[in-house]
Design brief:
Helix 2 (43-68) runs antiparallel to helix 3. It is built from six helices and three strands, in the order H-E-E-H-H-H-H-H-E. The chain is mainly α. The protein has helices spanning 2-26, 43-68, 72-80, 92-95, 100-123, 126-146, and strands spanning 29-30, 37-41, 147-151. 70% of the residues lie in helices and 8% in strands. The structure holds heme C. Heme C binds at residues 50, 53-54, 56-57, 60, 102, 105-106, 109, 137, 139-140, 143-144, 147-149.
């Protein structure tokens, strides 16, 4: 009987371990011809992420334009638009398809925009804003080098 319970516990742990690996660490990934990791999504999920990307780009354009005019309030506002609040629209089903490394870089990028918004308004220091922005943009570069978004096969 004792052995029976042990095997049940073992099987449950294996299932939990597999689930954690599949849905939290690995995501829905495959290989691609350009050697990046291909994340397989439905077209609406892909569209949602690409929309988020375009708003990243728009924030950066507005931040740099505002800095040229010494408008730190506007620069902070543009940074906040890509902060953590912007990621609340990502549904759990999409989260589970994203590999851990991708999620980490994504969360970190949103957090850095929030930090940039705070520091821009507090410090009013162009050099500091540009330094933080260029560091933040290393996230854009490294994520694009590692991942691409492709459509999953229709079931
Ligand atoms: C967590 C990963 C990740 C981060 C961080 C990231 N991107 Fe992306 N981005 C992607 C992926 C993946 C694609 C799709 C590329 C592909 O399929 O070839 C993409 C696509 C884009 C596109 C194209 C949008 C479209 O409509 O086709 C833009 C613009 C973009 N990213 C801007 C940015 C900017 C600016 C940053 C930094 C502030 C950034 N991204 C940060 C992963 C990321």
């Amino acid at each position: 009987m004792h052995k029976f319970y042990l095997s049940v516990i073992f099987i449950l742990l294996a299932v939990i371990g597999f689930g954690t690996y599949k849905f939290i660490l690995q995501g829905a990934v495959g290989n691609s011809p350009d050697n990046r990791i291909s994340i397989k999504l439905s077209s609406s999920e892909r569209n949602l992420l690409l929309k988020e990307m375009r708003s990243f780009l728009s924030s950066i354009q507005q931040i740099t334009q505002s800095l040229v005019k010494d408008d730190f309030i506007k620069a902070a506002k543009a940074a906040r638009a890509s902060g953590r609040a912007a990621q609340k629209d990502v549904p759990g089903s999409l989260m589970s398809k994203l590999p851990l490394g991708f999620k980490k870089l994504g969360f970190d990028t949103h957090s850095r925009f929030d930090q940039l918004a705070l520091d821009t308004a507090d410090m009013v220091d162009k050099q500091l804003v540009l330094t933080q922005l260029s560091t933040l943009m290393q996230n854009c570069v490294s994520c694009h080098a590692a991942y691409r978004l492709d459509l999953e096969k229709q079931q």
